[in-house]
Batch of 2 targets.
Target 1
Amino acid sequence: MFNSKIIGLGKYLPENVVTNADLEKIMDTSDAWIQERTGIQERRHIVKGDGNSTSAMGVKAAKIAIERAGLEPRDIDFILFATLSPDYYFPGSGVLVQEALDIPNCPAMDIRMQCSGFVYAIATADQFIKTGMYKNVLVIGSEYHSGGLDMTTRGRNISVIFGDGAGAVVLTQTKDENKGILSSHLYSQGKYAEELSLIGPNTGRWVPEIMELNDPEDISYYPYMNGQFVFKNAVVRFAEVIQEGLEKTGWTADQINLLVPHQANLRIAQFVQKKFRLGNDQVYNNIQRYGNTTAASIPIALTEAWEEGKVKEGSKVVLAAFGSGFTWGSVMIQW
Ligand code: UT7
């Protein structure tokens, strides 16, 4: 049996910055409301025609991660691509990365677990590496939200929150059983599938039917979120699944060098920080600058924290996420 460890990290954010003031011009919202409820000051949005797509951003982040790992794309044995906004309905975005990176016939799998996508993908990569099936696994989280949001007052409770971007890591095998991914903990609760969802079009109502009805009130092709319900569940599940990781590893909260929570809402991260009595230097947040980038938020934040020297040899790092599904999970990493 091997352990898996992260040896390269990269991120890509589109250049176009959209501030809260920019949103005030197109919908009934305010910088004060957005900052008070979410902590977000600005986010990045793709500009149509700038050449970016979910997979293209993922490729840019992946190239950096692979280079920092000291590898060539052809050294990658398996690609895992976490997203809720794939380039196409099908096939998934992973195969587009395989083609763009020119890794002949490398298997590629999409992970459709929304905000928990990156945590699920790391856990999946870890299992393939542990068994010895693959040595070097590329894990990408990438989202192109902005093109699919309702950017009017009607959609303001969601559209102010989400941003575009991508992050990537390369994992490889190590024989050191005290290093790398020590444990991962995954959950889902489909009972609440529709509380944070985009349900149309779907197999119960295909595109031709929607077009035929041409109902101006039909907004099923925009994301829906029961915000307060999601918030209440998030704070409970984040705490539970981090606690489970602490018990499994035997770590105490004060030993955590860095918690990198999914960047859903700064208030959620602050609640979790308080719950575990973590200091400001023990939790990494960048939602202020990028908004919620769903499956991309943890790899973007982890990369940034690593670039700033906050994650280094010997660090005890905790990743945790909660979101649509509902799904949630944590990963405990001894760097
Ligand atoms: O990443 C996946 C996981 N996602 C999450 O964890 C998100 C969890 N939920 C949240 O973060 C919060 O619920 C939100 C930030 C989305 C919303 O905050 P809230 O405190 O739950 O607000 P609310 O939806 O209860 O709305 C309060 C008021 C409403 O007005 P009335 O009915 O009180 O007059 C909304 O219409 O705020 C209004 N509102 C806004 N006002 C200005 C909603 N969105 C906006 C907006 N600007 N963008």
Target 2
Amino acid sequence: MYIFSEYQEQGFLILENFVSSIICDQLRQQTAKLVSEFEPQTVKNIFTTNEQSRISNKYFFDSSEKINFFFEENAFDNKANLCQSKELSINKIGHALHELDSVFKNFSYNNKIARLAIELGLKEPVIIQSMYIFKQPNIGGEVNCHQDSTFLYTEPEPVIGLWFALEDATIENGCLWAIPKAHKLGLKSRFIRATDDTTSFKILDNTQWDLTKLIPLEVKKGSLIVLHGLLPHLSYANKSRFSRHAYTLHLIDKNWHYAKDNWLQRNNLPLNSLSIRS
Ligand code: FE2
């Protein structure tokens, strides 16, 4: 009960030691394996065709049911070659690791997460997306202040974000920042995918957040940060020499309405329930 009321009141929760150090390392090792098997040539081609935005949009949309790799904005030079190794150039992997990779699937569907989802008020929790975020040393880019419900709109309740720190997250290496209680101010915008697969932001409220109220959420490796879908949060660029790896899941309830014009649509993969298994 404490967890639910704190989440509702503050808009976020920090649960320390939620994941053991060994499991954090296993997830990192599995990711290193996925990256080593990934051939950037296929993605590099995107940057050499005139249809760049159409194809990269398709790669993005398709990632809802795949394990796709997304580069840092400045990863490529003007000849479409990576400026440094692929291991140090990838911004994130998304968005179906939790379905398609056995190590991430085992982790994502574990009982501890299922119990937490119930405590957070979900009756039939499902995982709508997963991401592995690298926040690379020196080049890990800033993520602007946003609300997760902008991208994954649901009714009547907002999506719940779970952010697992697989390494210490500090101010220096680009930890999360959030504005406590600002989830109560409502949703500012929605990211809409039209039927022709173009995207746009629909503004619902153009008042600005008070960014002076942002606080850093510095956490140790193994901590879980739970984020209310309406909570404004961001992370600054990582200018340090340390990476800041994190794994994230977004949970919704099967009984909620999931907007058909959200960018992420699950058409083929079954939507599995996150249930407590004996
Ligand atoms: Fe976010």
